[in-house]
Design brief:
alpha/beta, Rossmann fold, 11 helices, binds NADP nicotinamide-adenine-dinucleotide phosphate, binds glyoxylic acid
Length: 310
C-alpha cells in the first residue's frame, strides 16, 4: 500500500515524511512533488497540496488533511466524490486558538494597547476598571475550535454566546443557531470571534451589514479564513468609529501583500496565520490512528461531508 505526503505551503516534507513513516510502518510513504513521477497512492496526507494532485493520483481512496479547514482542498480539480476526506480534529490547535482569542480580547478589554502607548511616553496612568458585562463575546462556529474558545473565555467571566448551524448546549454559553438567529446573536455581541469553516454559505459573512449589527466599540477577531471578511467593509466600519479594532490572523491573500491597508492600520493587529498551528507530534499521532482505522474498515471521525463543505 502506497501513501503520499504533499504540502505546498507551511509544512516541510523533511519534517513530516519520516515521522509518518515511523508511525505507519505498514504503508510505504513517498514525498509527492508535482514534477516527480506519479506514485499510484491510495492514501494521501496533505496540507494545501499542489493543484494537480488528484488528477495525477486517481487511485486515491482517502485524504487526511493536516489542518481543520478543508476549503483549499475542496477547490482542487479532479477530486472525486468517492475519495473520503478526513480533517484534523483539534490535534493541539484548539488550545492555541483559545489563547489567541483571549490575547486579542483582553488586549482590547483591559486596554493593554493603551498601556503600551503610555509606557512609551513614560506615563503612569491607570485607566478606568472594566465591567465584563460591557464586553459580551460572540463566537461564530461552535465546533472543535469554537467550543474550546468559548469555554476558555467564559471561564474568565465574560458573557459568551455561540452561533452554529445546529444548536449547541454548552454550560455557561448562550446558544444561537441558524441564519434566523444571526441578527440577535450579533446585536448582543461586542467582541466577535470567527471560527467558522469557509463554505459557500459563510463566504463574505463578515460584512458591512453583519458587523454593523455589533455593539458600538466592537472588535473582530478573525481566526478562520480571510474570505469570510469583506475587507473594505471592515475598514469603513473602523473609520466610522462603529468598530474599535480587529485582530486578524487570516486574509484573502496570504501572505498579506506589501502595502495592504491592514499592515499600518492603527486599530488592526495582523498575525501570519498562526492562531492554531498544526503540531507535528499530535498531528502524526492522530492521522496515523485514523489511517489505521480506515485501512481496517472501521469508522473514522472527522469525515468531511461534501454537501456541507466542512
Ligand atoms: P468544525 O468542528 O467543523 O466546526 C465548525 C462549526 O461551524 C460548527 O459548529 C458548525 O455548525 C459551524 N458552521 C458551519 N457552517 C455554518 C453556517 N453556515 N452557519 C452557522 N454555523 C456554521 O471546525 P473546527 O475544527 O472548529 O475549525 C473551524 C475552522 O477554523 C476551520 O475550518 C479553519 O478555517 C479554522 N482554523 C483556523 C486556524 C488558524 O490557524 N487560523 C487553525 C485551525 C482552524 P454545526 O456544529 O451545527 O455543524
Ligand atoms: C488552519 O488554518 C487549519 O485549518 O487548520
Amino acid at each position: 500500500m502506497k501513501a503520499i505526503f504533499a504540502a505546498s505551503s507551511g509544512l516541510n516534507s523533511d519534517d513530516w515524511v519520516a515521522p509518518l513513516q515511523n508511525a505507519l510502518p505498514e504503508v510505504d510513504f513517498y514525498n509527492w512533488v508535482p514534477e516527480g513521477p506519479a506514485i499510484g497512492a491510495e492514501i494521501a496526507v496533505v496540507w494545501q497540496p499542489p493543484a494537480d494532485i488528484f488528477q495525477r493520483e486517481p487511485g486515491l481512496r482517502a485524504v487526511f488533511n493536516l489542518g481543520a479547514g478543508v476549503d483549499a482542498l475542496l477547490r482542487l480539480p479532479g477530486l472525486s466524490k468517492n475519495v473520503a476526506i478526513f480533517r484534523l480534529e483539534d490535534g493541539g490547535m484548539a488550545v492555541q486558538m483559545a489563547e489567541y482569542a483571549i490575547y486579542a480580547l483582553t488586549r482590547a478589554s483591559r486596554q493593554f494597547d493603551v498601556y503600551q502607548r503610555l509606557q512609551s511616553q513614560e506615563q503612569w496612568q491607570p485607566q478606568p476598571d472594566i465591567r465584563r458585562a460591557d464586553w459580551s463575546v460572540g463566537v461564530m462556529g461552535m465546533g472543535v475550535m469554537g467550543k474550546r474558545v468559548a469555554q476558555a473565555i467564559a471561564a474568565l467571566g465574560y458573557p459568551v454566546a455561540g452561533w452554529a448551524r445546529s444548536g449547541k448546549q454548552v454550560p455557561g454559553i448562550d446558544n444561537y443557531a441558524g441564519s434566523g438567529h444571526l441578527e440577535a446573536f450579533l446585536k448582543r455581541t461586542r467582541v466577535l470571534v470567527n471560527t467558522l469553516p469557509l463554505t459557500p454559505e459563510t463566504t463574505g459573512i463578515l460584512n458591512r451589514q453583519t458587523l454593523g449589527l455589533l455593539q458600538p466599540g466592537a472588535h473582530l477577531i478573525n481566526m478562520a479564513r480571510g474570505e469570510h471578511l469583506v475587507e473594505e467593509d471592515l475598514l469603513a466600519l473602523l473609520d466610522s468609529g462603529h468598530m474599535q479594532g480587529a485582530t486578524l490572523d487570516v486574509f484573502q491573500q496570504e501572505p498579506l501583500p506589501a502595502g495592504h491597508a491592514f499592515w499600518q492600520h492603527p486599530n488592526i493587529t495582523v498575525t501570519p496565520h498562526i492562531a492554531g498551528a498544526t503540531l507535528l507530534e499530535e498531528a502524526v499521532s492522530q492521522v496515523s490512528e485514523k489511517v489505521r482505522q480506515f485501512l481496517r474498515g472501521e469508522p473514522v471521525t472527522g469525515l468531511v461531508l461534501r454537501e456541507r463543505g466542512y
